[in-house]
Amino acid sequence: MQKEYKTIKSIAGPLVMIEGVEDIKFEELVDITTASGEVRAGKVLEAKEGMAIVQMFEDTQGVGASGSKARFLGKTLQLGVSRDMLGRIFDGRGRPIDGGSEIIPEDKIDINGNPLNPNARDYPDDFYQTGVSTIDALNTLVRGQKLPIFSGAGLPHAQLAAQIARQAKVIKVDDEGTIQEDAGNEENFAVVFAAMGVTFEEAEYFTNEFKKTGAIERSVLYINTADDPVVERIATPRMALTTAEYLAFEKGMHVLVILTDLTNYCEALREVSAARKEVPGRRGYPGYLYTDLATLYERAGRVQGKEGSITQIPILTMPEDDITHPIPDLTGYITEGQIVLARDLHKQGIYPNINVLPSLSRLKDKGIGKGKTREDHSGVMNQLFAAYARGKEVRELAVILGEAALSEADLKFLKFANEFEQRYVQQGEYEDRDIIKSLTLGWELLKILPKNELKRVKPEHIEKYMQS
Amino acid sequence: MEKQGTIIKVSGPLVVAKGMEGARMYEVVRVSEHKLIGEIIGIEGDEVSIQVYEETAGVGPGEPVYPTGETMTVELGPGLLQSIYDGIQRPLPLIQKEAGAYITRGIDVPGLDREKKWDFKAVKNNGEQVVGGDVLGEVEETSLITHKVMVPPTISGTIKEIKSGAMNIEETVAVIEDKEGKEHSVSMLQKWPIRNPRPVKKKAVPKRPLVSGTRILDTMFPLAKGGAGCIPGPFGAGKTVTQQTLAKYCDAEIIVYIGCGERGNEMTDVLMEFPELEDPNTGEKLMKRTVMVANTSNMPVAAREASIYTGVTIAEYFRDMGYSVALMADSTSRWAEALREMSGRLEEMPGEEGYPAYLGSRTAQFYERSGIVKCLGNEEREGSLTLIGAVSPPGGDLSEPVTQNTLRVTKVFWGLDAKLAYRRHFPAINWLTSYTLYTDNIKEYWNKEISPEFAKLRTEALGILQEEAKLEEIVRLVGMEALSPKERLTLETAKSLREDFLFQNAFDKVDAYTPLKKQFWMLKSILNVSHAAAKVIDQEDFNFEELLKLPVMERVANAKNLDADAEEEYKKLWEDTKREIMSLQKA
């Protein structure tokens, strides 16, 4: 028997304190009916003897201490999942908003998920081609990786994420240097997209982008826009990941999960934490921000003996482009690298404005080289990095001393850095460069440099791949 | 199980229960009908605060709490090696067998296999007198490591009975009668509380280096066996790669690797790689000397706190057998965060940045478990335990509490630098900020085993790198032309040191491991150029390009590709260097 309680004691922001309760459980779901008969959902955040602190998923506007009723449902938050979710759009709490019918669930799953046993994981090492040179050649994505995009306000991260979603496919390069596409690219591919606190326009951009390319048929969208309840945002990514896990590990699909914008998610966490009067960590964010983010990001990966995989591309905007801000900082400690967008490149009109130097893919080494991409990949990658880093240093030097004071070698590095940005980083939004093209272009740029400076590439590879 | 307490509050991993008279601090309890594992971390009257090592969703007030009367212990005995555990010593493969790919709640699996028979060979006889720490017998645990079954530290007396043969770890291998005439049965399985350091006879001062084959570590900032070091650095600078390189190649006999609140895929990587990789010192598979503790970031936070202690207790156990043990903890910041999270939920008064005020003392207690020791027992055994902790300072800011508390108790600091990582200079250890306090301790070892010149060359190289930083400032302001030939030479030497000596590719089979002798030869090759060139550069109109174009320069740059035992070739290189450079001398 579910009891109803009329003993709401206090309401503070998204938190509701209910007295005199019996037999309640931590994380249990609660329905609160307002005096006007509206039903709002929440969950138990702290269960004490005779007292429950409930965190609402929705606004507490209109909820009164008297006149409202609370009902404890005796279960934790579950999501009904089904393959039919593909092609559908939901709100941040998993209710359809595309005018379609309700989903008939094949299974109900707790949205918090359980931690994946590291022993049961399969190491991600399938090269995932995005068609973006700066990612494929320099910060290689592999299937099952979590690789966030660190962006800033006003930068084209949405376009980049959409481009990756459009172009991503698994390929292998054979010994002759021809690209072999993986058979499962088409039918087994799915995108799960979760928008947290983004503007209506940004949400529309993604929806339209998916519709335009027909990708919507293979996508599940969760949309929580900026004017939706803040606390709902905490559940949104978990719904998306639960869906992704179902599709990947029950239905054998390769799922690309795009989460945007994690900064809004963290703000929501901070709001709830402050309402609970918890001791804050850095910049007012709760001390468990790392653990909380980890429970999202760590849900990417592959599982031994299962067909599917989950690749995550979370997007976050760095406040003031500050990479040491707690959100990008803690994210970087959990994810397997990061793609950092640069404002100065964007101002120069370069798209995608990826700043390759602070960008990194930790899993690249297992996904490249002979049998995956090409034997020279690692050498070219390191050489391009080192040369670009030096070129940028020379550029700074030139600002102080003037170009006339530079040595001959330095001038070449300067030229390299400029060409690298203009020709290598720069590419069209709809330009799909395969890995061979990216590597060849890399060699072409390396020709600018004196040969004795090419210390990171093997001499036999110079012989073989650098066309004079 | 007898019910005693009743839950009155649940808040994440913290559960408060009443009616717990007689409870002791750090006693293990089972929480609710799910029998979740928890540990008492606070007592007030008959109310206790319990940190629960598993997810508490669905647990509520009114549910029972079962005391066990035991403190948190680890199981010690044959079968530890090649294992992978979670933070409270549950083998992950067994959890997988019970629950599938995901870790669910209430799984109760033993740390060590009870069924497996081990071939126990007694080395003591009936009637012999023994004290705690004495070796009773041996078991060949892996082809690399002989497991020594010791008398538990608390027992001493006369052996009444001892037998060899194939036994499981619970069977009695010996019976010891103590002074009071009480008989103690000793089996291969022993338990030890994780928060208590295992006793030793005496601690000693570290004297030998821990050689890892990584040039910047071994030559520039060596760590001693039995010492403690830390690796702080921002994300992406290579903490984990450095830790893993150490785990792979360092010359300790036993490795305990703790993945504390880190990435799941990283642990998988280690799990897949270690059974394949060979130890450069013995040629055996690395896994055979390794114990792993993995509590990834998404696993319960309280177990993360325990994982550090679980790991270090296992490491101490092998140290007591007389082995040299190295423990890597990646990352201690996550452990500190777990402390902070529990402290916050206990509503304790926070210290700096929300960390509890006892962060400093806990950190010190952990690192002080390192050391080179005379092991307990009548036999003269010496074991060592080296601790290497990674620290992940937020934003790379070293002034934060975890880094600062760690620096106070570790003697080696390997400071990782994001700027070097951006330039893809790996290992991205900053040679200007890093330090070691062990050089005096191990100088004697260097003089005897490597060369009396080694310490001198090392100091010189560090000096040149220091000088480079200063000169670069000048170059930035006024350009290369303003430098004297001597300064120019310093810059060239420093560049060579950076690119040809300090830069090392951890993913290249040959380059990943450089024996200490070869490190010396490489260093000498580079500095020889500087010594020889110093004699010619002061000539009128000396052309630096000519020097850099000498054929020997390229040979010096590629000195890392010479064989590890090619002493003659290095000697020839040194002679050629001298000859070629002297040829630039004008008559």
Question: Could you characterize the architecture of this molecule?
Answer:
The complex is a heterodimer of chains A (468) and B (587). Helices cover 32% and strands 24% of the residues of chain A. Chain A is built from 13 helices and 23 strands. In chain A, strands 9, 11, 14, 17, 18, 19, 20, 21, 22 and 23 form a ten-stranded mixed sheet that branches. A seven-stranded antiparallel sheet of chain A has the order 1-7-4-5-6-3-2, with no helix packed on it. In chain A, strands 13-12-15-16 form a four-stranded antiparallel sheet, with no helix packed on it. In chain A, a hairpin with a 5-residue loop joins strand 20 (301-303) and strand 21. In chain A, helix 6 (289-297) packs across helix 7 (326-334), helix 10 (377-401) crosses helix 11 and helix 11 runs antiparallel to helix 12 (435-446). Chain B is α+β, with helices and mostly antiparallel strands and 587 residues long. Helix content of chain B is 33%, strand content 23%. In chain B, the strands form five sheets. In chain B, strands 8, 18, 19, 20, 21, 22, 23, 24, 25 and 26 form a ten-stranded mixed sheet that branches. Chain B is globular and about 95 Å long. The mean pLDDT of chain B is 91. Chains A and B meet through strand 5, strand 11, helix 6, helix 7 and helix 10 of A and strand 1, helix 1, helix 4, helix 6 and helix 9 of B. Strand 5 (39-48) of chain A pairs antiparallel with strand 1 (5-11) of chain B.
